[in-house]
Amino acid sequence: MDSELDKRRAQRATERRQCILEAAAAVFARKGFERATTREIAKAAKVSEGTIYNYFASKQQLLAALAQMIQEKFSAIVPKPTANGDDRLAIVRAMEEVLAVIAENVVVIKGLLTALWDQGYGFHGYLLPGMKTLIQQVEDYLKARMATGAIRTCDARIVARMVMGMVIYLAVPYIQGVEPMPSPEQRHQQAELLVSILLQGLKS
After folding, report:
1. For 177, how many CA atoms within 13 A lie in the half-sphere containing its CB?
2. Separation of alpha carbons 182 and 171, rounded Å
């Protein structure tokens, strides 16, 4: 009985923490990090201001938690290289999932980027949260596939950065709200086009 009650309490705590993070992101996106207050975040999350401090000691901790949350979502996407894997299919799926994560978390990402900019971090290492980790994962994937001869030998680090740059600047108008968020079908088409350019260039 106590175990079941503890599980429910833990679940409620997890849900409340997530709610606070999403509320913080929305307030950061609207007002910026410096002008945002924990009172406004509490109001958006429909909790007391004191409740926020049960989970986060400061706005800075909120910011760090937002970055970690998004980084974890993106890091789980990069495919694991296999000896006889279909690179095109694996990369298309990964690109689609990246675009889907952006679509599903656009307010959080916008709030996070706004806050990072306010804090003077600019886009250095944070053009998308977890960018450095993602670049390393993509680089590792490329090196593993080069080792099998599946793709030609090249500077994997540079290619990984190029791939991330393509995805990032594709997504920027959606994050800014300048263009409507693409549908799943459009995301698939965009992923196919990105991979086609990456693997085959622009040859007809």
Report:
1. 8
2. 10
Question: How far apart (Å, rounded) are the C-alpha atoms in residues 145 and 15?
Answer: 40
* pLDDT string in tens for the chain (204-residue length): 568 888 888 899 999 999 999 999 999 988 888 889 999 999 999 999 999 999 999 888 888 888 888 888 888 887 776 656 677 888 888 889 989 988 888 888 888 888 777 666 544 444 454 677 778 888 888 888 888 888 889 999 999 888 888 888 898 899 888 999 999 999 999 999 988 888 887 776
Q: Which CATH architecture is the domain 2-200 placed in?
A: Orthogonal Bundle (1.10)
How many CB atoms are closer than 10 A to CB 173? 12
Instruction: Identify which of 166, 102, 171 has the alpha carbon closest to the alpha carbon of residue 135.
Output: 166
Contact assessment for residue 52 and residue 20, using Cβ atoms and an 8 Å cutoff: yes
Task: Output the six-digit token pair for 122.
Answer: 């600019």
Give the C-alpha separation, 3 to 151, whole Å.
52
> pTM here?
0.77
